[in-house]
Design a protein that fits this description.
heterotrimer, A mainly alpha (about 575), B mainly alpha (about 200), C mainly alpha (about 100), A: about 575 residues, mainly alpha, two-stranded antiparallel sheet, 2 strands, globular, B: about 200 residues, Four Helix Bundle (Hemerythrin (Met), subunit A), binds protoporphyrin IX containing FE, binds copper (II) ion
Amino acid sequence: MSGQPDTHHEESFWRKYIFSVDHKIIGLQYGITALIFLFFGFCLMMMMRWQLAYPEEPMPMLGWLFGENGVMLPEMYNSLGAMHGTIMIFLGVVPLAVGAFGNYFVPLQIGAPDMAFPKLNMTSYWCYFAGGIVMIVGFFVPGGAANSGWTSYPPLADIATTGQTVWLIGMVLLITSSLLGSVNTITTIVQLRTKGLTWMRLPFFVWAQFVTGFLLLLAFPPLEAAGVLQLMDRLLDTSFFLPSGLVVSGEILNVSGGGSPLLWQHMFWFLAHPEVYVLILPAMGIVAEVLANNTRKPLWGYKSIVYASTFLGFMSFIVWAHHMFMTGMGTTISAFFQATTMIISVPSVVILTAMFISLWGASIRYNSAMLFALGFIPMFGIGGLTGLPLGIAASDIHLHDTYYVIGHFHYVVAPGTIFALFAGVYYWFPKMTGKLMNETLGKVHFWLSMLFINGIFMPMFVQGLAGISRRLWDGGTTYAHAADTLWLNEVMSASAWLLGLAQLPFIYNLIKSMKSGEKAESNHWEATTLEWTDAPSPPLPHRNFEVIPEVHRGPYEYSVPGADKDFTPQSEA
Amino acid sequence: MEIPYNVEERQDTGMYNAKLGIWLFLASEVMLFGGLFSAYVFLRMGDVTGAFMSGSNQLNVPLATFNTLVLISSSVTMIMSWVSLKLGEQKKFKTYLGSTLVLAGVFLVVKYFEYSAKFHHGIFPETSTFFAIYFTLTGLHMLHIIGGMIVIFYFLVPGAKMMKLESERFTNRIETVGLYWHFVDLVWIFLFPVLYLL
Amino acid sequence: MSGHSVEDIKKSVKVYIGVFAALAVLTVVTVAASYLDLTSGESFFLAIIIASVKGTLVAGYFMHLFSERTAILAVLGLTFIFLLTIMFLPYMALTDHPAV
Ligand code: HEM
Ligand SMILES: [Cu+2]
């Protein structure tokens, strides 16, 4: 599990960039791969949006993908939907938040030369990569990629085309990767904190990664188990998720029966609810760093947000059945899950409020990173608040599985988490490359994204309240009662494509700055945490620091009264 | 650059890295088997056909009892191999670790006969939800045994070089392998009554 | 667990042998108990209790949990809570199901 790379002789290209054990290279590998998958998932979504806005019309340019005079078939829409969800979550956001930023910056922020288990780290990346390839292979098997939703509910998923089997195999690889990664992150944070870096001096980003590590470690295995059971159902004809007497296409299915589709739902949501905190916690961590740095003030209520995030992590394991109010659950259990769901909203509000108050009285530096971090606050606010009615069974009956739900969780993950990830890219790019990104392009990127992303998701609430179901390949054209909200489909689709265009300045900026950006100082943002104050940009290969720093104070000592400058590094004695 | 606390313990946590690492891994394993046990409880309690009762009566209790004893013994030889290393008795270490490997092999052979007897009688995972969960649980457990055997074999033959070169690190590694092995034993301790006796 | 003196280790060998014997005996006991004429509820609890005792012996002595660091115990405590959750909450939801 360990074994040190020899830093003294030149490494071959393969050792240095491909099968590297340096957490920084692995972090970059994760980052690049995840960005590509995010873009791919985004493209799938743009095709879906065509279908939703113009259900009968052939798709321009890409029509050849669908045969049938260029109109997307319902099966194809289902595949795109399921793969969009899967790719965005498991191949895009989580690897970017945890694999890339976590891997790169946790060791740097705690003053460690690397992760605790470098080879294991490399293995997690390659498991992730293999999982991604397998997922893509799904598109090329007969019947197309998995088409039972990212939730893969049986019985549908049990009897779906081969793509579902491929999906399951991909998931097993991705889960394995996450498990190895979380063992590594937790061990690193517990064991490799440098001298003087006590728990309450950890930057909040590290705390967020720590809690996330536990969520991945303990919530994923039951889904892995469920995945194995579904594979058994599909390959060995068992009936874990198939009830007795199930009728498919007018015939009784020839299986032993005796299983239960609800079993899958429990095992799936046991992971998938904690998973949403896996998506949001690292994002909050990034936002906290960027906020403190650009308000030039200590983060307000550091301790409360630390406790809130650990409490959040704990509670996230006992709320899962709020996704299952409509399964005929009895009142006792549903009362339990409603109560826990209301309780878990409290720590989220604590964190958000602390961030908000941190802005009070600050002379804010409005750079691109800060804009995205600021954008995160109201966007996550909308996402979170719209979740409350979903957590109460009485209102959920109306809203469940409508576009309202889609609007809700997208506010959390897209303008929420993804904005935070953008903030992370703009904030840490100078550290990773030693170059600066172009601020003007960054601001253009932010304002356009902000505009169009709301153009996509805000109307979803309207359509959802009007009663349009999610996962419809025709965008609800048959819903007479919702007819007067259908024009919004075009608005949303246009916004989606424009949002796609709005990413071009970002992509250009990223590539251009990497090649020929201005040179960055090692502490470009005048920050206090170790990655900025004690490591060059980019940090030294394989050991990060010239001398391992020692820590003397908390993470956010900005504008300390009486100090000679407005930031006091953690490592300053 | 050497990673700190790879071999020696960190003062304030009192652990070397791999010790925490293996325990975290085992925690996730607990949840993995926990998920499957959960499926067992769920299906059994929802079982109206009696598949669980009749299924469990068809299993071979004497063979499984024998196998339980085999695994327990392998746990003991495992811990004794670590003890021998601690005491610097390298010959004994090899004997004990080798015995663990042999006992694990015995377990697999017995399991092979159990499985083939079932197949012979036309019992497969698809026969009923009981046999579905039986084959899944024992199959996954067997995969863990095989994985453990590979690692043990590694430390017995090719990896044993390290015993002389870095003896403390090697002892730590054997301790972590041991923890994994005892865990596999622990899982069986629960599998046995749950599948065979209830 | 390092920092063991040779004395300690020699002493613990005796403990390991004792645990081995206890495990073997309990295995026989649990098999014997399954032949008793008990209701399914009773035999379930008996079997689970015996298995838990055996499990505790293995974890406590072979895996040294009885003298392990608090950090590890804390992780396992947390895991145990979630283990109970995943094992029994779905089942409770099932039985609270008016239709079943
Ligand atoms: C920002 C641009 C995005 C747009 C316009 C978009 C749009 C959509 C649409 C139209 C659906 C299908 C709704 C349905 O038919 O049920 C969908 C589903 C989904 N999206 Fe997105 N999405 C975006 C980003 C994301 C991100 C960043 C994530 C995750 C981190 C994500 C996760 C999901 C999930 C989980 C589903 C449900 C898939 C399923 O039905 O199984 N999306 N999205
Ligand atoms: Cu949830």
